[in-house]
Design brief:
about 170 residues, alpha/beta, Maf protein, 6 helices, 5 strands, Non_canon_purine_NTPase, magnesium, nucleotide metabolism, EC 3.6.1.73, NTPase/PRRC1
Length: about 170
C-alpha cells in the first residue's frame, strides 16, 4: 500500500489529496510540518519554497513514500494583489520533486491593503466574512468566487497536476 504524507493538518489540503486518490489503495496521513517560510508567503517563489519544504519535511517526519506540500500565498502585480497557490510532490526514493501551481484571483483592496500592511490572509478573511476558520473551509478563493471554486477544489486541481507529472515520469522510466 502506498503511504502518502500531507505536510499539513488543514482540512481543505487533506481533502484535496483524498479527492485525487479516492478509490485507490493508499494510506494518507497528515502531519503539521514547518513550511520554512513566512506565515503569509508574499511571492510565487516563497510559496513554492513553502510547498517543497512541507513535502520534504513530511517525508523526513514519516515513513511515507510520497510527501505532499500545499501552500497558499499572494503575489503583488501591477494589477493588484493576487492569491497564488502551489503544490509539491516529493518522492522518498529519488530526488524528484514535482511542482504545480493553481488558480489566481485578484483580492479586493480592503483585503489586499491589510496584507500589504503585514497581516495574514486567514485572520483577515475571518474578520472580513465575520466567520471563523475560512482557511480550513472554502478559503478566500471560495469567498470571492461565490464558492464556485473552494480551497479544496483548487488544491485538488493542483494535486491532479502533481500526480499526473509523477505518473508520467514513472511511465517514462519503464
Amino acid at each position: 500500500m502506498l503511504r502518502i504524507v500531507v505536510g499539513s493538518h488543514n482540512p481543505a489540503k487533506v481533502q484535496a489529496v483524498k479527492n485525487v486518490f479516492k478509490g485507490e489503495r493508499v494510506e494518507i496521513i497528515s502531519l503539521n510540518v514547518a513550511s520554512g517560510v513566512q506565515d503569509q508567503p508574499f511571492s510565487d517563489e516563497e510559496t513554492i519554497e513553502g510547498a517543497i519544504n512541507r513535502a520534504r519535511n513530511g517525508l523526513t517526519e514519516s515513513d511515507a513514500q510520497i510527501g505532499i506540500g500545499l501552500e497558499g500565498g499572494v503575489v503583488e502585480t501591477k494589477h493588484g494583489l493576487f492569491l497564488c497557490n502551489w503544490g509539491a510532490l516529493a518522492v522518498r526514493e529519488s530526488s524528484d520533486v514535482f511542482i504545480a501551481g493553481g488558480a489566481r484571483i485578484l483580492l479586493p483592496d480592503t483585503v489586499a491593503n491589510r496584507l500589504l500592511a503585514g497581516e495574514e490572509l486567514g485572520p483577515v478573511m475571518d474578520e472580513f466574512t465575520n466567520r471563523a476558520g475560512i482557511r480550513k473551509k472554502e478559503g478566500a478563493i471560495g469567498v470571492f468566487t461565490n464558492e464556485r471554486i473552494t480551497r479544496a477544489d483548487m488544491f485538488s486541481h493542483i494535486m491532479n497536476m502533481l500526480v499526473g507529472q509523477y505518473e508520467y515520469k514513472i511511465g517514462q522510466q519503464r
